[in-house]
Amino acid sequence: MNDDIEQRPMLQAVPEGDPKRIKFERLATSRTKRAIKAIRVLAGMGGKNRYSYSFSSADVDRIAAALSDEVVTLREKMIAPGRQMDIEFDFK
Fold this sequence. Notes:
Helix content: 55-70%
Largest sheet: none
């Protein structure tokens, strides 16, 4: 996995006070916090004291795999932007 990191193209550093950098940091922080919150809400479905959902470890594995795939896609898109991706997840 470290080899993969070394093979990525180097992104050009942006000056600290650049308005586009400031906007990126603001949006990235907000969106990352929202994504983390959504994952925590999803994880809360496993709380057997509050919920009585019926799910299996295979269901959990499918959810985790979908999230992991999206993290891989995020890394690819951040390096090579310009592509729109559809949301693809379903238990069917």
